[in-house]
Amino acid sequence: MPDHHTFKTQRLMLRPTAPEDAAFIFELLNTPKWLQFIGDRKVSSIEAAGEYIREKMLPQLERLGFSNYTVLRKEDGAKLGTCGLYDRQGVEGIDIGFAFLPEYEKKGYAFEACSELMRAAREDLGLTHINAITDKDNFASQKLVEKLGLGFTKTLRLPGEEKEVLFYEKSLEKEK
């Protein structure tokens, strides 16, 4: 695999999610909030999580040079969550997404990781616009997306999904 961007903040390191993260991804994708707000991805084993990484995350990384990042705490290497830039089917443009294990929520890690990815999107990857999608009932994610400076623009239904989601946007050009 080519050397893709790894990003660092004061407390965190964000590196592309890889097959060796399968046990962590299995745990994350099966947390109650993931299942409630993002949806059941039918990842029922560590082996299935490895396949999910290979089929859903790595192709975009190879194609665009960015995708899903595993967020690690620098001080001890603990895997806290994920943050990524996604070329999502049915949505024009790139959106930012994030999910953290319950024990690492409400500690500022998601804001720190997302802020760094938005900086990288603008400065390193040359993106001029960023989107975000949240569940209508995920008030914590809505608050974080708004804190990142994205504004609500509409509701939409993603391909193959039953529920409508909230769609947010932000121009990155103003920040150059």
The backbone outline, from C-alpha atoms, is globular
Going by CATH, the homologous superfamily would be: Gcn5-related N-acetyltransferase (GNAT)
**Termini, distance in Å?**
31 Å
Residues in β-strands, percent = 25-35%
DSSP strand count: 8
Helix content: 25-40%
Number of domains: 1
Number of helices: 5
Radius of gyration: 15 Å
Oligomer: single chain
Whole-number mean pLDDT: 94
In the CATH classification, which architecture applies? 3-Layer(aba) Sandwich
Task: Spell the H/E element sequence.
Answer: EEHHHEEEHEHEE
CATH topology name = Aminopeptidase
Report strand order across the widest sheet. Answer: 1-2-3-4-5-6-8-7
Helix/strand-derived category reads alpha+beta
Regarding CATH, which class?
Answer: Alpha Beta
Unreliable stretches, pLDDT < 50, 5 or more residues? Answer: none
Pfam family, one: Acetyltransf_3
Domain N-acetyltransferase: 12-173
InterPro entries: Acyl_CoA_acyltransferase, GNAT_dom, N-acetyltransferase
Protein name: GNAT family N-acetyltransferase
Write the topology of this structure:
Elements: E1 7-8, E2 12-16, H1 22-29, H2 32-38, H3 46-64, E3 68-73, E4 79-86, E5 95-100, H4 109-123, E6 129-135, H5 139-147, E7 151-157, E8 164-171
Parallel strand pairs: 5-6
Antiparallel strand pairs: 1-2, 2-3, 3-4, 4-5, 6-8, 7-8
Helix pairs in contact: 1-3
Protein name: GNAT family N-acetyltransferase
GO molecular function, one term: acyltransferase activity, transferring groups other than amino-acyl groups
Keywords: Transferase
